[in-house]
Write a structure and sequence with these properties.
The structure holds 2 protein chains of 2 kinds. Helices cover 76% and strands 0% of the residues of chain A. By secondary structure, chain A is mostly helical. Chain A has 2 domains: 70 residues, no CATH class; 43 residues. Chain A is extended and about 60 Å long. The N and C termini of chain A lie far apart (50 Å). Chain B is mainly alpha-helical. Chain B has 2 domains: 76 residues, no CATH class; 157 residues, no CATH class. Chain B is 82% helix and 0% strand. In chain B, helix 10 crosses helix 11 and helix 12 packs across helix 13. Chain B is globular, with a radius of gyration of 19 Å. Chain B starts with a helix and ends with a helix. The chains are: A mainly alpha, B mainly alpha. Chains A and B meet through helix 1, helix 2, helix 3, helix 4 and helix 5 of A and helix 2, helix 3, helix 4, helix 5 and helix 6 of B.
Chain lengths: 127, 240
């Protein structure tokens, strides 16, 4: 468990270091995600890597434990709303309406594009 | 017990222990309520934990800074949790590779819509310029959005609030909205949730369906990347 958490943190650390060092606009944890993915794929290819936390689903279990309570992790930033009460008092209704409309439009555009493209591809395959 | 309970409160309210405990217990309660309502969208655990803790801080006159000194230990885990998304992605890699084309097209369409719609609507509502700029990156995860807002000389803490509000509204609305569109493909539904509502949308997607969660996580990561490029461009073109 500890070693598995260590692997996850190490991936993030390398991700942050590379993102900062090279000046990539990519967030460090997203690079860390790619790194862990490559590590897991490499483990299937090379038996040499299948040891310690990479053996017997160690990293997998630790990751699922973290993801089980993903919602909780947003609470501290969310409570930050208390710092913006003045602004919300003056523009709150407009801000909430703008965000709500935008999120609905975005959800619909994304889901319908995804479905349209996957249908077109399936028709092409059928032909 | 000493004769002055107030000094005990002063001591505790400045210690990280109290606020970490409050965060965990309030969330455990709102999450239990959410579970008891079989994950009803309106029983969103983040939304209710947020206002309960916020009200508690206001009532006790505690500053957000002293609250965050305790809550930062939870906040810190956002980074490792993003890395951990590699695991469901790895386990479902065959389905992901098979859907790569619809994913990339939907990513582009969705990212552009997210940024352009919020900037245009905010301008239409007559919001001040720095508010418009702070709202622009609202569909990506908090850390990235704050970075984008900073680079535009906007208000990073307002950007973080816009991100959280967007995430919560997206998580509440996604299930009823998708049921109305009649889309039953959980890859598409999850992808939309993660793109529009980042990690809070992804947390919601995992509650509904594992495949939806996986695609939501991918959408969230890819959108963080695309939006970082897109916002400065959209702002130059669209903001007065």
């Amino acid at each position: 468990m500890l070693a598995s958490l260590g692997v996850i943190l190490l991936c993030q650390l390398i991700g942050e270091a590379v993102a900062r060092g090279v000046g990539l606009p990519l967030p460090g944890p997203v690079l860390g995600l790619l790194l862990l993915l490559v590590l897991l794929l490499a483990r299937d290819r090379f038996a040499l890597l299948a040891r310690g936390p990479l053996r017997e689903a160690g990293v997998e279990t630790a990751s699922k434990g973290l993801l089980a309570h993903l919602s909780l992790l947003f609470v501290p930033a969310g409570v930050g709303v208390v710092q913006e009460l003045d602004l919300l008092a003056s523009h709150g209704v407009a801000i909430v309406l703008v965000l709500a409309l935008s999120v609905i439009v975005t959800l619909l555009t994304t889901v319908l594009t995804f479905r349209l493209v996957s249908r077109l591809l399936r028709q092409q395959d059928a032909r | 017990m000493k004769d002055d309970p107030f000094s005990l409160w002063v001591y505790l309210s400045q210690s990280p222990l109290l606020w970490l405990t409050v965060t965990l217990l309030v969330y455990a309660t709102t999450d239990a309520v959410s579970l008891a309502t079989r994950r009803h969208p309106l029983a969103n655990p983040v939304l209710h934990a947020m206002w309960i803790i916020g009200a508690f801080l206001l009532l006790t006159g505690t500053s957000y800074t002293s609250y965050f000194a305790g809550a930062q230990f939870v906040h810190f885990l956002l980074g490792p949790a993003t890395v951990a998304l590699a695991v469901p992605l790895y386990e479902n890699r065959k389905r992901v590779v098979a859907s790569i084309v619809p994913m990339l097209v939907a990513l582009l369409a969705g990212s552009v819509t997210a940024v352009v719609s919020v900037v245009l609507l905010a301008e239409l509502a007559g919001l001040p310029r720095d508010v418009v700029l702070s709202l622009a990156p609202k569909s990506v995860t908090a850390g990235v959005a704050m970075g984008i807002a900073e680079s535009l000389h906007a208000d990073p803490s307002l950007a973080a609030v816009a991100v959280i509000l967007t995430g919560i509204m997206g998580a509440i609305i996604v299930t009823p909205l998708m049921n109305r569109t009649g889309v039953t493909d959980y890859r598409a539904r999850g992808f939309a949730a993660g793109l529009a509502a980042h990690g809070i949308g992804t947390a919601r997607a995992f509650q509904v369906d594992e495949i939806a969660g996986v695609f939501s996580g991918i959408a969230m990561s890819l959108n963080a990347l695309v939006t970082s490029f897109l916002v400065p461009l959209a702002v130059t073109l669209l903001v007065r």
